[in-house]
Every structure is written in structure tokens, then in C-alpha cells.
Amino acid sequence: MRFFIILFYIIFFIPAVFADDGGPIKVKRIECKYVEHPKAQSVYFLISDDDKSAQKIFLWSKDKFKNNKVEVIRKLRLIEFWDRTEDEVWSMWREDGKIYNPSMSCVPLSENFDPVKYFENYIKKEIEEQKKKNIF
């Protein structure tokens, strides 16, 4: 019986010690931006303190933005953001912030920048400009 208890611990608990979690995420506020696009096209990730979830904030259209809760998976070389709402995965290299999209890269987001307020102001401005352009 003692043998089976020891075997149980070896099989189920020892591998957890060597799991590929990559350690804690060092930068909790991330901006992923296109190389040649305006700031409004950026996607922002605000990672929770426990590194298990994040808010993904992005412009959905000229008059709407989304704030989706995403699951965060830490790996040794990658951080994955699983957005079940949009059915997509964003994989970011931990070493340099590159995304699996050649025209995007991620950088730390300044502490005093609020993406929600930014998009609210951006949309308000876009709506006002569109109202001025409307002929009918």
C-alpha cells in the first residue's frame, strides 16, 4: 500500500513542479499595435494580479469598442491570451513582445494611459465628425 501512495505522489505531483508556466508575468499592462496603423487600431491587455485572466480592450468599429475577459496561459517562452468571445488566441513571445502576426508587436503600456477612456473619447469624436459629414 505504501508503494502505491508513493507512486501516486510521483505520478501526480512531481510533474507539477516542472510544469511549463514560465513564472509570473512581469508586465501587466500591454499594448499590441500594428506597425503602420494609428493608435486606435491597437489592442490592449490588462492582466490580473494572479496572471490567470486579462481584459482585452479593442476598437470593434468606428462607434464601438469591446472589453472582453480573456484567459491567460503562461508558458516559458509565450504568453497566450484565449478570447473565447471572439474565438481566437493571441500568442506573444515573452522575450521581445512579438505576436504571431508579422505586422504587430507588443510593448508595455504606461500606467497613466486608460484604454477605456481613450476609446470612449475616440468614439465620441468619431460620432461628432460623422454627424457633421452626414448630408441626410
What is the strand and helix layout of this fold?
Blueprint: H1 2-12, H2 14-17, E1 29-34, E2 43-47, E3 53-61, E4 64-74, E5 78-83, E6 88-93, E7 104-108, H3 115-133
Antiparallel strand pairs: 1-2, 1-7, 2-3, 3-4, 4-5, 5-6
Features of the shown structure:
single chain, 136 residues, alpha+beta, Lipocalin, seven-stranded antiparallel beta sheet, 3 helices
Describe the structure.
By secondary structure, this protein is α+β, with helices and mostly antiparallel strands. It has one domain: Lipocalin (Beta Barrel). It contains three helices and seven strands. The N terminus is likely disordered.
What is the CATH level 1 assignment?
Mainly Beta
Pairing-aware structural class of the strands and helices?
alpha+beta
Radius of gyration: 20 Å
Unreliable runs: 2-19
Major sheet: size, sense and barrel closure?
7 strands, antiparallel
Q: Can you count the beta strands?
A: 7
